[in-house]
Amino acid sequence: MAKLVKYLKPYWRQVLLGVILVLVEAMSNLYLPNLNAAIVNNGIAKGDLEYIFRTGAFMLLVTFLLGVCSVLAVYNSSKVSMAVGRDLRRDVFRKVQSFSQAQVNRFGVSSLITRTTNDVQQIQMAVLMGMNVMLFAPFMAIGSVIMALQQDTTLSLTIVFLVPVMGGLLALNLRRVVPRFKEMQAKIDRLNQVVREKLSGVRVIRAFVKSEHEERRFGKANADLTNTALEIQKHFALFLPLQFLVINLANVVVTWVGSHRVNMGAMPIGNLTAFLTYIMHILFSVMISVMMLSMIPRASASADRIVEVLDEEPEIGETGIPGAPCGGEVGVEFDKVVFAYPGAEVPVLKDISFQARPGQVTAIIGGTGSGKSTLVSLVPRLYEVTSGRILVNGRDIREMPLRELRDLIGYVPQRAVLFSGTIASNLRWGREDAADDELWRALSIAQAADFVKAMPGELNAPVAQGGTNLSGGQKQRLAIARALVKHRKIYIFDDSFSALDFRTDAALRKALMEETKDAVVLIVAQRVSTIMNADQIIVLDQGRIVGIGRHAELMQQCEVYREIVRSQLGEDEVA
User: Fold this and answer.
1) What CATH number was assigned to the domain covering residues 8-178+236-311?
2) For residues 61 and 55, what is the distance between their CA atoms, to the nearest angstrom?
3) Closest by Cα among 379, 411, 397 to 319
4) Given strand 490-494, what is the order of strands in its sheet?
5) CATH topology assigned to domain 332-574
6) Which of 39, 137, 413, 475 sits CB 3.0–4.6 Å from 43 for a disulfide?
């Protein structure tokens, strides 16, 4: 929690203003019982109506000041808490953007969403309540004790017994509740995970008639969260009646002792009414402190989770050493590259060495799980190599600024990802200043121009979140067009033709070869027909290169490649 205090520093003026407003508010509250006692002792007792009206008018003025300060204090604290929440969300989002894919997987997408939203909201509420309640309660409690002592020292001895009892109840309650709050945030993560899987996999769930199974999963996660929340509320449900019991007993004791002292002439009746008010202020301060302290454990748990993200150092660091711009030919070279996922016992890729030259198409093929997608993901540093080097234009990519490296690459991922907006806004992710003519040219090469022209609005046709209003083949072609709009020196197509029919696949590859004739092209493919004409085919088997060459060479030299061809094209092609 202490590490997040720095987020209040830019708003120290507003925090200081909040302290002043709350202090004035507390002083006004403390002054009103004294004025009331004065009316009872001096006005009513002596029948002085002029004194009563004059003092009553002053009480109204103090009450008005109290109301104005209360409104301003809440408004000011709201602004500060919202600003702190905004800054926290921004920094968490930026930090997550710098994480490698392995780090994202380690935290979990659902957990990162919860930390950016729900956890930050808990901090916001803590700041909001802290600037009002946490500041107000101590001022009121300490001021009320001082004012109560001024009314009657003997009667104030009740405070000595009252405060420890309330404090003991509070400590006992918090000791039981604090661990539950950490459990609660973890269970919110789990609930978000189940909901996210349910929504993203709704087609599969329906196709396999697993709706009831998913409802049971959701019900279990929901029940776990509900039970934890109920467990917390049970403690507070027990604590609050006990607190009110102590308050009412204190009122009885003070009234009983005070009435005897008034009867004996040891204190005026106005002082007794003021004392009762100050006792209520003290107990009220303890009550609102309890409310605040019930939020602090949850906010503290949320703060720990946020700090965990903010303190995480990106595995893929930004070197910040710009090199000479790659104005000439850009080649990609893998030099004895080994890669293992964090915590894995064996590497996914082992001793990978090859060169991909400009003007050549390098295709990568292999069985499921052989490491094809992982291999091409290393080039834009979505993952960091475990050992070995990847060179781009003779430079180790770990020595290149990430922006410079990724600006050289047009990347089409295995799963075509589109964003809510329009066709044009998605294509301009490749290059923001691209003209409409360039967008149409890229669409034409990607064999997407026809279906885009058939859509209402053409380039301005809406795209739903995730491209759910488009087919798989349409999304793949738009993702390819987006990469072509970027017009870069390295193109990576990670199994980007799998949803296309053979005719569209052939037409797209023919147009693509002309467009990328001066670039390095890396293609991951499952279909042999997609990569038969590649200049260089790399065959992977269990993370190792078992063959490099053209189609005809591999048919003679590589048994793994022949098996892949036989499974797809039959014995005639092998023969």
Assistant:
1) 1.20.1560.10
2) 10
3) 397
4) 409-412, 490-494, 520-524, 361-366, 536-541, 544-549
5) Rossmann fold (3.40.50)
6) 39
DSSP 53-98: HHHHHHHHHHHHHHHHHHHHHHHHHHHHHHHHHHHHHHHHHHHHHT
CA 56, 60, 63: angle at the middle one, nearest 5? 135
Query: Which pLDDT value is given to residue 291?
Result: 67
Interatomic CA distance for residues 88 and 416, integer angstroms: 31
How far is residue 483's CA from residue 457's CA, in Å, rounded to a whole number? 22
Question: Cα–chain-centroid distance for residue 73?
Answer: 29
Q: Is 345 helix (H, G, I), strand (E, B) or coil?
A: coil
Answer whether 344's CB lies under 8 Å from 371's CB.
Answer: no
Domains 8-178+236-311 and 332-574 share a fold: no
Identity of the highest mean pLDDT range in 41-45, 322-326, 382-386 = 382-386
Return the domain boundaries, the chain: 8-178+236-311, 332-574
φ, ψ for residue 431, nearest 5 deg: -155, 120
Rounded Cα distance between 182 and 222, Å, is: 16
pLDDT the model gives residue 322: 57
- Kindly state the tokens that stand for 83: 């600003």
Contact (Cβ atoms closer than 8 angstroms) between residue 522 and residue 376: yes
The arithmetic mean of pLDDT across residues 201-208, rounded, is: 74
CA distances 37 to 30, 176, 226, Å, are 12, 42, 49
Answer whether residue 308 shows pLDDT above 60: yes
**What CA–CA distance (Å, rounded) separates 366 from 565?**
11
Band (pLDDT 50/70/90 cuts) for residue 323 is: low
Name which residue leads in pLDDT, 86 or 420.
86
Cβ(85)–Cβ(122) under 8 Å? no
Q: What is the DSSP letter of 408?
A: T
Higher local confidence (pLDDT), 344 or 140: 140
> What would the DSSP string read from start to end of 307-341?
HHHHHPPPSS-----------S---EEEEEEEE--
Neighbour tally for 3: CB within 10 Å: 12
Q: What is the pTM of this model?
A: 0.67
Q: Which residues pair with 364 in a beta bridge?
A: 524, 538
Q: Which amino acid is at 113?
A: I
pLDDT band at 385 (very low <50, low <70, confident <90, very high): confident
Give φ, ψ of 90 to 5 degrees.
-60, -45
> Packing angle between helix 269-311 and helix 12-38, nearest 10 degrees?
170
Q: What is the pLDDT of residue 460?
A: 84
Q: Which of 478, 492, 491, 404 is nearest to 448 (CA)?
A: 478
